[in-house]
């Protein structure tokens, strides 16, 4: 269990409604389509037609979700043009989009371990081939298990 420290320890003295980072992230990315679009961006998908086809949604749904991800700063539009074709946009991960990657890979790992699946996919380190996991580490490099994680308020 994660421990709330300091003024956060009295759960009745404060409310996270409207300010919680989890709530705000879910409001932005809490749809299946948004998460799958981000997954596809990590797999290298950049073209609109590939996004909607690989995620399995309508073109209208893909256009809406991609626009939201661009507006949120997770993807950016970059123009490209095939020879003899009109100019189009491709969708490329931004720094914020790349920073979101551990969330998607955490979901991947949790689903692989806890949901019925026949998937043989695994995350691995490209350099050595060893399986990779998503974990929390403190800024000093220590692995932080759930029972050692705290949430505290810091001053701005």
List the helices and strands and how they pair.
Layout: E1 3-4, H1 21-29, H2 32-42, H3 48-55, H4 59-71, E2 75-80, E3 88-93, H5 95-99, H6 101-114, E4 150-151
Parallel strand pairs: 1-4
Antiparallel strand pairs: 2-3
At a glance:
With 156 residues, this protein is an alpha+beta fold. It has 6 helices and 4 strands.
Please, could you describe this protein's structure?
With about 160 residues, this protein is of the alpha+beta class. It has helices spanning about 20-30, 30-40, 50-55, 60-70, 95-100, 100-115, and strands spanning about 5, 75-80, 90-95, 150. Helix 2 (about 30-40) packs across helix 3 (about 50-55) and helix 3 packs across helix 4 (about 60-70).
Strand arrangement, major sheet: 1-4
* Chain-averaged pLDDT: 92
Helical segment count: 6
Note the run of SSEs as H and E: EHHHHEEHHE
- Biggest β-sheet description: 2 strands, parallel
Seen as an oligomer or otherwise, the chain set is: single chain
Rg from alpha-carbon coordinates: 19 Å
| Overall form | globular
The helicity comes to 25-40%
Strand portion: 5-15%
Find the count of extended strands (DSSP E, 2+ residues): 4
End-to-end separation: 26 Å
Task: Give the low-confidence spans.
Answer: none
Q: Helix/strand/pairing class, anyone?
A: alpha+beta
């Amino acid at each position: 269990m994660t421990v709330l420290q300091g003024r956060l320890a009295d759960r009745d003295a404060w409310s996270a409604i409207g300010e919680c980072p989890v709530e705000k992230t879910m409001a932005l990315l809490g749809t299946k389509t948004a998460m799958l679009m981000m997954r596809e961006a990590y797999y290298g998908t950049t073209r609109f037609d590939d996004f909607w086809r690989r995620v399995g949604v309508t073109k209208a749904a893909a256009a809406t979700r991609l626009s939201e991800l661009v507006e949120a700063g997770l993807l950016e539009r970059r123009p490209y043009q095939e020879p003899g074709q009109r100019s189009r946009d491709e969708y490329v991960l931004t720094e914020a989009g790349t920073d979101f990657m551990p969330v998607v890979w955490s979901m991947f790992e949790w689903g692989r371990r806890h949901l019925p699946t026949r998937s043989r996919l695994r995350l691995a380190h490209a350099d050595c081939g060893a399986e990779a996991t998503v974990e929390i580490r403190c800024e000093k490099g220590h692995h932080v298990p759930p029972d050692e994680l705290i949430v505290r308020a810091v001053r701005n």
